[in-house]
From TrEMBL:
Keywords: Heme, Iron, Metal-binding, Signal. Pfam families: Cytochrome_CBB3. This is Cytochrome c. The lineage of its organism: Bacteria, Pseudomonadati, Pseudomonadota, Gammaproteobacteria, Pseudomonadales. Coiled coil: none annotated. It comes from Marinobacter daepoensis.
Length: 118
């Protein structure tokens, strides 16, 4: 038996269990949504720009993704864009979180408060 291999599996399993517990416990609660909003700004923003106006990745303001239906945005977040820097997020985000982010991107809600100042 490979003990270090088992340890890795155990750690990965624990991380997934913790993620699921966190998501399940607070699903729909405002803290979850502000945490998720933070995640989009920090993590997605590292490539797409803190105001989602683009960087390494293309801009993600509502006018930029007008041609993509919400379901297409969700599919891109879920699967990434193979052969580009856009990674798949399905291992990190729940389906609910992916759909929530897609809706926010389409509505511009995450960037609306500062959209005039940048
Ligand atoms: C490591 C850099 C990187 C990160 C992090 C990243 N993206 Fe991307 N993303 C890209 C690149 C590059 C593309 C362009 C892919 C292509 O050429 O079609 C892209 C494309 C997209 C598109 C399609 C845009 C369009 O107009 O076709 C969406 C939607 C998107 N990303 C959402 C997200 C979301 C939401 C997150 C956070 C969960 C995220 N991305 C994180 C690099 C990144």
């Amino acid at each position: 038996m490979n003990r270090s291999g088992q340890g890795l599996y155990w750690q990965a399993g624990l991380a997934v269990a913790l993620l699921m517990a966190t998501a399940g416990a607070t699903a729909g609660a405002p803290e979850t949504e502000s945490e998720l909003a933070n995640f989009v700004i920090q993590d997605c923003g590292s490539c797409h720009g803190l105001k989602l106006k683009g960087g390494l990745g293309p801009p993600l303001r509502p006018e930029d993704i007008e041609a993509l239906p919400e379901a297409a945005v969700a599919a891109i977040i879920r699967q990434g864009v193979p052969g580009t820097a856009m990674p798949p997020w399905k291992a990190l985000l729940t389906e609910q979180e992916i759909l929530w982010i897609s809706r926010q991107l389409k509505s511009g809600a995450l960037i609306a408060p500062e959209s005039d100042t940048f």
